[in-house]
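Suppose you are handed a protein chain with no further information: no name, no annotation, nothing but its sequence. What can you learn? This example shows the usual starting point.
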Amino acid sequence: MESRVNETDVVGLVQDMLLDTQDVQDFLDELARFSAESISGPRGRIYCGVTLLRHRSAATVASSNDHAQAVDEIQYQFGDGPCLRSCREGVLVHVRDLDAQNRCGQEDAINLIKSGSSPRNLKLRDIAAAIVESAGGGTVTTHFD
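A reasonable first move is to predict its three-dimensional structure. Written in structure tokens, the prediction is:
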């Protein structure tokens, strides 16, 4: 049986979170973690990032974990992605909604993943696994695991 939190409970939890955190940064980090944990389920793990758009530049101000941060960094360097699209257009974007768009080639994909892994000091395979998992592909395993 799946446990769902109703709207009243969420409001109370967020209010408590706001009162229990030291500053806005702590609150946003906790909100991102809480949101990701609340939405994650048997179909896969969800990552959450809080993006701030200011003067046409974007930055992740909070994230549920390093994978969420890395995926956001890839979007910023590429100049597009589900979070940026949602911010620009004010709509909810499901990753499967992006399937109809043009896809980049393998070399472009590797370059995008590299650009997201270097500044965060994360392995390429970890970033790629995070992307596949967040797109609903399930847990990624390799021959070497």
